[in-house]
Amino acid sequence: MKVRNWFFGTIAFLIASVLFLMASGTKEISVFSIISHFSPFDSSDLELADQIILSKVRLPRILLALVVGAALAVSGTCQQAIFRNPLADPFILGLSSGAALGAALAICLNHSEYVSLAAFIGGIGAIFLVEKLSGRYGKNDRSITQLLLVGMAISAFSSALLSTIMSVYSQQMQAIFFWVMGSVAQPPDNFFFLSILIFVGIIILFSYHREMDIITLGEEQAFFLGIPIKQLRKMLLLLSAFIVSIAVSMSGPIGFIGLITPHLLRNWFTPTHRYLLPLAALWGGILLLWSDGLIRLFPLFSSLPIGAVTALFGSPFFLYILIQRGKRI
Fold first, then answer.
1. Does any domain span residue 2?
2. Model confidence over 160-174: pLDDT tens digits?
3. Of 16, 146, 259, 296, which has the fewest beta carbons less than 10 angstroms from its beta carbon?
4. Alpha-carbon torsion (70, 72, 78, 81), positive or negative
């Protein structure tokens, strides 16, 4: 009953959030008119300008925030299970910065049609480089610290390369700047196709929810239960890199959604990935949706990119987890 209430409550809050943010903005639109406009029997009397605002501006922005937030949260949940580390996150481990670097290279080479593919290759390369350089992870706190340090080093190196590319290819600086700062204001033309790919990746990851539960118990337990731990980790890393790289190709690197969402849900609700993964997808979308809502609704945040908003709240949360973990050790 508790699981059902959580899902129903989450979905209700998600719907309410979407309706509120659809109605709010520079031009206020009534919720009733919005519901009537998108219903099969359109009985609303919206002006043409309001219809354009809803269909061409607010709805695409909201959908992009939900899809990207879900991808980041599910990937973060998967990586925290793989590494048995609550600090694992696509942004912290360098996956997002690697994907952004790949996208920037595609833009500079005038191959914008391959941005998603380049971002995917960059994300894959970054995460596996972190894995190889950090050695055998997950057995003790020293290896976990090594993993985080390597991930941060790869992320910093990718950011340095990105800055170099922006200085050399100054004519593409504005386009590259989009990836660096992150934005959900302009969905790509192939948004629905990329969203389907992310959805398929999330479904495949969900099919391994039992294996993720076993991985969190440790390598020895997984071995005795017949789980090929090395092959499984590589495949899950590939899938998580797949969905995050596509998300980054649409919005640019946005940090900390994949860190905050699964950590809170695991502590407040359940560590069982059968329920944790779908809840992470929903709440990841909600968190990113409201992060974008702060930009739209409050003048204080109006000049901030969405990546800066998530970092503003995510960085103190990361430090809080690190301090709490240090106290337990």
1. no
2. 888 888 888 878 877
3. 16
4. negative
What span, in angstroms and rounded, lies between the C-alpha atoms of 18 and 206? 25
In a domain? residue 20: no
Instruction: Match 């560590």 to its residue by tokens.
Output: 271
Q: What is the pLDDT of residues 171-207, one digit of tens each?
A: 887 777 766 778 888 888 889 999 999 999 999 999 9
User: In this predicted structure, what is the pLDDT of residue 144?
Assistant: 59
Domain hosting residue 296, numbered range:
70-328
pLDDT in tens, 70-97: 999 999 999 888 888 777 777 777 887 8
Cα 142–Cα 237–Cα 158 angle in degrees, nearest 5: 75
Answer yes or no: are the C-beta atoms of 138 and 154 closer than 8 Å: no
Give, in order, the Cα–Cα distances in Å from 235 to each of 127, 175, 201, 208, 219: 12, 32, 12, 10, 16
CATH number at residue 202: 1.10.3470.10
Read off the amino acid at residue 149.
L
Question: What is the four-CA torsion angle of 132, 137, 143, 148, rounded to 10 degrees?
Answer: 70
C-alpha triplet 77, 83, 89: angle, nearest 5°: 45
Q: Tell me the C-alpha distance between 199 and 71, whole Å.
A: 8
Q: How far apart are the first and last CA of the chain?
A: 36
Q: What gap in Å lies between CA 116 and CA 119, rounded to an integer?
A: 5
- Number of separate domains in the chain: 1
Q: Is the pLDDT of residue 286 over 90?
A: yes
- Do residues 295 and 309 lie in contact, with contact meaning Cβ atoms separated by under 8 Å? yes
Alpha helices, H only, 84-189: 95-108, 115-133, 141-168, 173-181
Q: Which of 229-238, 264-273, 319-328 has the highest mean pLDDT?
A: 264-273
Task: Band the pLDDT of 140: cuts 50, 70, 90.
Answer: very low
Cα–Cα distance measured from residue 78 to residue 209, given in angstroms and rounded to the nearest whole number: 9
Contact partners, residue 46, CB within 8 Å, separation at least 6: 29, 33, 37, 54
Residue 144 and residue 85: Cα distance in Å, rounded?
Answer: 7
